[in-house]
Amino acid sequence: MITLFSSPCSHDLARSICLANPSFLRGDISWLRFRDGFPDLKINDALNLTNRHVVFLACLESSDEIFRQLSVIYELPRLAVKSLKVVLPYFPTGTMERVDEEGEVATAATLARMLSIIPGTMSGPVEILIYDIHALQERFYFSDQVIPRLVTAIPLLLKRIRALKNVAIAFPDDGSLKRFGKMFENYPIITALKIRDKDCRKVVIKEGDPRGKHVIIVDDLVMTGGTLLRCQEALKKAGASEVSAFVTHGVFPQQSWKRFVDHGFTKFWMTDSCPKTVEMVKNYKPFEVISLAEDIAAKVFCE
Questions:
Q1: How confident is the model at residue 198 (pLDDT cuts 50, 70, 90)?
Q2: What percent of the chain has pLDDT over 70?
Q3: Residue 101 has what pLDDT?
Q4: Which of 12, 44, 244, 274 has the most other CB atoms within 10 Å of its CB?
Q5: pLDDT band at 105 (very low <50, low <70, confident <90, very high)
Q6: Rounded CA gap, 210 and 123, in Å?
Q7: Contact, 220 vs 249, CB < 8 A?
Q8: Closest Cα partner for 149 from 135, 129, 179, 126?
Q9: Greater confidence, 106 or 217?
Q10: pLDDT band, residue 201 (cuts 50/70/90)
Q11: How much of the chain, in percent, has pLDDT values that exceed 90?
Q12: Burial 270-298 (b: 16+ CB within 10 A, else e)
């Protein structure tokens, strides 16, 4: 058996993981607060964790959650657990992964340092499972004290679209093409390019022919969605019969997901890596959530 703990906002995903694989046993944490607002935390039945395999399902979407959850994660190895795997469906600081000007702070490196000091377990270093981190080179921000394991949700999309006809895959820029292109070898590929036209940005088709095809735009995440919307417009003008989109992480700050309601997308697939977004969009078309639960259950057992 594997004991599965989860952050407060990850309870639904944790429940689905346990349903996907009965070898998981839910652990219990009291996520309370003192009167001054600071966390009052307790890992219940802690003595029973000795020599057990443990998984912690994290959700670090806010700085306050980072403090609370890291406090628990740091404590788990001290309870003499046999192994610990931290599952991070979304690495939230990933878009701030490099410095272009002196004085900027690469917070991706900061968060990686904080995760890198998790104490080791009875059987060795802690493994950190991260889905579709924004830039693959961010793995080098982690120290050798932990084992970052970068995985992708693209196979879940491939399974979902297997039965669709006349499909082509579009990438909004060369970066997403280089990262995900090889995973779609059985599909026609279309690449787009962002250009600046006076005071605005446009998306143009660089390579590929979308005419008469159901084109699915693929990227790792979406924020405000401007690039996806411009890419959809370019594909429609170039003759695409339908346009859908897939992102692993539907971040959508300030409810920017509303821009995609009734905007002509056939489907907008995303995973449940960002639970707050999933809760907001679940009753709106064209959104459809592909759960990470079965994939997480399988990858946790993959040694």
A1: low
A2: 97
A3: 79
A4: 274
A5: confident
A6: 52
A7: yes
A8: 129
A9: 217
A10: confident
A11: 80
A12: bbbbbbebbebbeeeebbebbbbbebbbe
* 215 CB neighbour count, 10 Å cutoff: 30
What lies within 8 Å, CB to CB, of 176 at 6+ separation is 218, 219, 220
154-183 average pLDDT score: 94
Give the confidence band of 51 by pLDDT, cuts at 50, 70, 90: very high
DSSP string, the chain: -EEEEE-GGGHHHHHHHHHH-TTEEE--EEEEE-TTS-EEEEETTGGGGTT-EEEEE----SHHHHHHHHHHHHHGGGGT-SEEEEEES--TTTT----SSTT---HHHHHHHHHHTPPPBTTBSEEEEEES-S-GGGGGGS-TTEEEEEE-SHHHHHHHHTT-SSEEEEESSHHHHHHHGGGGTTS-EEEEEEEEETTEEEEEEEE---TTSEEEEEEEEESS-HHHHHHHHHHHHTT-SEEEEEEEEE--GGGGGGGGTTSS-S-EEEESSSHHHHHHHTTSTTEEEE-SHHHHHHHHH--
294, two tokens: 């079965």
Residue 127 region by backbone torsions, left for phi larger than 0, else alpha for psi between -120 and 50, else beta: beta
Domains in the chain (CATH in brackets) are 2-151 (3.40.50.2020), 155-291 (3.40.50.2020)
d(Cα 137, Cα 139) in Å, to the nearest integer?
5
Residue 248, exposed/middle/buried by CB under 10 A (0-12, 13-18, 19+)? buried
Look at residue 98 in the predicted model and tell me its pLDDT. Answer: 73
